[in-house]
Amino acid sequence: QGWRLVTCIWLHAGVIHLLANMLSLVFIGIRLEQQFGFVRIAIIYLLSGFGGSILSSLFIRNNISVGASGALFGLLGAMLSELITNWTIYSNKAAALLTLIVIILINLAVGLLPHVDNFAHIGGFLTGFLLGFVLLIRPQFGWMECHNLQPASRVKSKYNVYQYVLWVVALLLLIAGFVVGLV
């Protein structure tokens, strides 16, 4: 019944659970979708929900778990990896990082309440964090404007070396995590 790993993303345990998740999706998802487009964010959302379901099913065998929280944590994880990957383009780096970490910690603390599946939160967060390095990479500063410059002053590579390294490492860890989790 592998379909349960995906369908639980759209099931909720009541109206309040549904409203809380939809409110979170409005605040997190719209910002990301405006910057990176529907397709990338949809992939992160779906795979993060799936990753959260896998970790939850590995650690919680006797309880039922529903909700989009794993997928939402995936979007938070993707926001964090996007901030790290594209660090050079942010003007107020410390404030952005501190705000995001506080939001993540508050949400993880809420996961300690009874009947909340923190394994789905953690699995979704890790999946989204790794997917953010793969899907939310941006060209280095000045690359788009360099086409009007002289060849000697052009930026040689679209991405920095550390962006390539993070992309490869994240992709390998993501594949390994899904393979180990599913086996």
Automatic annotation (TrEMBL):
<dbReference type="InterPro" id="IPR022764">
    <property type="entry name" value="Peptidase_S54_rhomboid_dom"/>
</dbReference>
<comment type="similarity">
    <text>Belongs to the peptidase S54 family.</text>
</comment>
<keyword id="KW-1133">Transmembrane helix</keyword>
<keyword id="KW-0472">Membrane</keyword>
<comment type="function">
    <text>Serine protease involved in intramembrane proteolysis.</text>
</comment>
<dbReference type="InterPro" id="IPR035952">
    <property type="entry name" value="Rhomboid-like_sf"/>
</dbReference>
<feature type="transmembrane region" description="Helical">
    <location>
        <begin position="119"/>
        <end position="137"/>
    </location>
</feature>
<dbReference type="Pfam" id="PF01694">
    <property type="entry name" value="Rhomboid"/>
</dbReference>
<keyword id="KW-0720">Serine protease</keyword>
<dbReference type="GO" id="GO:0006508">
    <property type="term" value="P:proteolysis"/>
</dbReference>
<keyword id="KW-0812">Transmembrane</keyword>
<dbReference type="GO" id="GO:0016020">
    <property type="term" value="C:membrane"/>
</dbReference>
<feature type="domain" description="Peptidase S54 rhomboid">
    <location>
        <begin position="1"/>
        <end position="136"/>
    </location>
</feature>
<feature type="transmembrane region" description="Helical">
    <location>
        <begin position="42"/>
        <end position="60"/>
    </location>
</feature>
<dbReference type="GO" id="GO:0004252">
    <property type="term" value="F:serine-type endopeptidase activity"/>
</dbReference>
<keyword id="KW-0378">Hydrolase</keyword>
<dbReference type="GO" id="GO:0005737">
    <property type="term" value="C:cytoplasm"/>
</dbReference>
<keyword id="KW-0645">Protease</keyword>
<feature type="transmembrane region" description="Helical">
    <location>
        <begin position="12"/>
        <end position="30"/>
    </location>
</feature>
<feature type="transmembrane region" description="Helical">
    <location>
        <begin position="164"/>
        <end position="182"/>
    </location>
</feature>
<feature type="transmembrane region" description="Helical">
    <location>
        <begin position="94"/>
        <end position="113"/>
    </location>
</feature>
<dbReference type="GO" id="GO:0012505">
    <property type="term" value="C:endomembrane system"/>
</dbReference>
<dbReference type="InterPro" id="IPR002610">
    <property type="entry name" value="Peptidase_S54_rhomboid-like"/>
</dbReference>
<protein>
    <recommendedName>
        <fullName>RHOMBOID-like protein</fullName>
        <ecNumber>3.4.21.105</ecNumber>
    </recommendedName>
</protein>
<feature type="transmembrane region" description="Helical">
    <location>
        <begin position="66"/>
        <end position="87"/>
    </location>
</feature>
